[in-house]
Amino acid sequence: MARRSDKAPKAPKEPGRIKQMYQVFTMTKRHDPRSVWWMLLGFVLPLVAVVTAGILISGTNVFGLVLWSISGLLAGTLVFLIVLSRRAEKAAYSQIEGQPGAVGAVLKSSLRRGWTASEMPVAVSPRTQDAVYRAVGRGGVALIGEGPKSRTTRMLDDERRKVARVLPNVPINIIHVGPDEDSVPLHRIARTLGGYKKQLSKAEVYAVNNRITSLTTKTGMPIPKGIDPMRVRAPRPR
After folding, report:
1. What values do phi and psi take at 72, rounded to 5?
2. Which one, of 50, 39, 46, 54, lies nearest residue 76 by Cα?
3. How many domains does the chain have?
4. Domain of residue 112, residue span
5. Does the model's pTM come out above 0.85?
6. 156/118 Cα distance (integer angstroms)
7. CA end-to-end span of the chain
8. Residue 32: inside a domain, yes or no?
């Protein structure tokens, strides 16, 4: 009789850091071919600038030129990774743009410090699945409409009145995320929130957030709790 193995099956090994970066690069290149040129430019420009500065400063000092060259490589690599990160985020969110719950995914994963929000909407249309999300931060309260302006404007106005009744002295900002030309793209939501003038202290943000959670909003049809943009899969062809 064959012996039973007492050893538990090994969990699949996670890809290393280099492999993960390569996967992110290939995903970004596939969805945004022009990003390769921006990444290349981000690597070359700092390298050339630092090496040129090294030649001007060090002259014929070989040791100094080597140090400047290494610094240039490090600077170029850093800028390359920054550009890759920004372009990868944009490419990932472009795959879920227009889907219910896309704004919730952004609020869950990309909010900057000083802002807090739920990935669940505070209002949702049962018929169209258009939704309104709410965020609280140093810039006040932000109401984010997910869907065409023609359908979300009224929802946003209703939610604005509810917030104003509870918090009459707190600024309320409106963001539209949808197919309209002047709407805010998904990847710019966090940047838009960060651009608001700071009008509340950290203690006030905490108090406002506690106060605003007392609002009871009934939602209609269930909406996806949020989409992980890094795990989204393209629909299979029928």
Report:
1. -65, -40
2. 46
3. 2
4. 102-212
5. no
6. 16
7. 48
8. yes
The answer to whether the beta carbons of residues 44 and 38 sit under 8 Å apart is no
Give tens-digit pLDDT for 211-232: 887 765 443 444 444 444 444 4
pLDDT tens digits, 92-141: 777 777 778 888 888 887 777 788 888 889 899 888 889 999 999 988 99
Break the chain down into helix, strand, coil percent, rounded to 5: 50, 10, 40
Residue where the block lists tokens 């007492």? 6
Same domain, 79 and 172: no
- With contact defined as beta carbons under 8 Å apart, do 163 and 215 qualify? yes
Place of tokens 């707190």: 170
Which amino acid type is present at position 95?
Q
- Backbone torsions φ then ψ of 122, nearest 5 degrees: -95, -15
For residue 76, the surrounding DSSP H or E stretch is: helix 62-94
